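User: Study the chain.
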Amino acid sequence: MRNVKRIPEPETLVREAPGWRKQVLEIKRSGKPIPDSLMIKYNQPDVKEALKTMYSDDQGRCYCCYCESQIGVVDYPHIEHRWPKRIYEEQAFDWDNLHLACQKCNMHKADDWDDPNPILDAVLDVPISDHLSYDDDVLDGVY
């Protein structure tokens, strides 16, 4: 995992996210299920492009926020919610909660969340080296 710098919030989120969040909270208060069609409103072209910009290198190669594998070559990049949108519905449209991940990491993480031990944030946990360490003995012989 490497650190990235969050760029300015995409215009669609600036303009639409407050209304989407309000709808989510109203539906949640009513006790009805929140429709999937509302929960995927964040999936907009300018949001995807901003995340690709954040997670790309100088040559335009895009990398997963967790495993750093190159994405967008053999599979589509996934918009990842660090705070799972099924648990924290009101944060589904928060720019600070959105990252870019490969399909494998996004599907494996799913809706997992552990408050005492939250998943590292590539933007906020700076420097990331303060939060990760590698044991060379474990890596010996691994290809």
Notes: The longest strand covers residues 78-81.
